[in-house]
Specification:
globular, five-stranded mixed beta sheet, six-stranded mixed beta sheet, alpha/beta, about 20% strand, about 240 residues, about 30% helix, 11 strands, binds fe (ii) ion
Length: about 240
């Protein structure tokens, strides 16, 4: 049920970091969100170490959510080397885990990838020299390519890009400058600015970053890491109308 203006209310939260001793950590919150939004977007680091036990705990809370849940994994969800299993557990619970394929919900497209690091501007790592340096850069390029392919398939007038890593520096300001290159990649920004239908971008990962920024073309970017939102709004999620 969208707003009177036909806009979709998108609630977003990142960096849930569910641990294996958590007891229904997001149950109440997801119920609250279900009453005031149309879609829930999860921006990665859903688990703390990528353990199946952690994913199972979050899966139970996702099952209790009354609105569609879409999202991406984060680097923490890879820590135990089984992101496919984590993803499958969450998918089984009803979450649309974005990576290769975009989805459409009530006329709004959702495209998403985890993204990767690599830096911005003059600090961007170039694919030069050792094979491992090239492989590192390739990872970011691959993620950007997957995002572009999803955005290209969407036929909706409005879409949302969902990431874990940041495509811009604007929303990681507040973090130490020395770690900017580990917080995201400018390469993720190119596909976003290529498509007019992208109306909002959500990401997490930068726990000490800034809530709002814009791509060079002016598309709004929101860092919805719960640690950024809590002190700002008194709650760990943001709601944006798209
Ligand atoms: Fe995180
Ligand atoms: Fe992260």
């Amino acid at each position: 049920m969208a707003t009177d203006e036909g806009r979709l209310r998108v609630a977003a939260i990142g960096d849930l970091h569910v641990m294996e001793d958590s007891v229904a950590p997001f149950r109440e919150l997801f119920t609250e969100i279900s009453n005031l939004a149309d879609v829930l977007v999860l921006c990665g680091d859903l688990t703390n170490f990528g353990k199946t036990s952690e994913a199972e705990i979050l899966a139970e809370d996702i099952r209790a959510c009354a609105i569609p849940v879409v999202g991406v994994l984060g680097n923490h969800d890879y820590e135990c080397g089984q992101p496919e299993t984590v993803s499958a557990i969450l998918h089984e619970a009803g979450m649309k885990v974005l990576d290769e394929q975009a989805v459409e919900i009530e006329g709004v497209g959702f495209a998403g990838v985890k993204g990767f690091m690599g830096g911005y501007g003059r600090g961007e790592l170039a694919p030069f020299g050792e094979p491992i340096a090239k492989a590192f850069v390739d990872e970011a390029l691959n993620e950007a390519r997957k995002l572009e392919n999803q955005l290209r398939t969407l036929r909706t007038e409005r879409s949302v890009a969902v990431l874990h890593y940041s495509p811009i520096t604007g929303t990681i300001e507040g973090e130490p400058q020395e770690i900017f290159q580990y917080l995201g990649s400018q390469r993720l920004c190119d596909p976003i600015d290529r498509f007019d239908h992208v109306k909002a971008v959500f990401h997490g990962h930068a726990h000490h970053g800034k809530y709002e920024g814009r791509t060079p073309r002016g598309t709004p970017v929101y860092n919805v890491a719960q640690f950024v939102l809590r002190p700002l709004f008194g709650k760990p999620y943001a709601v944006i109308e798209v």
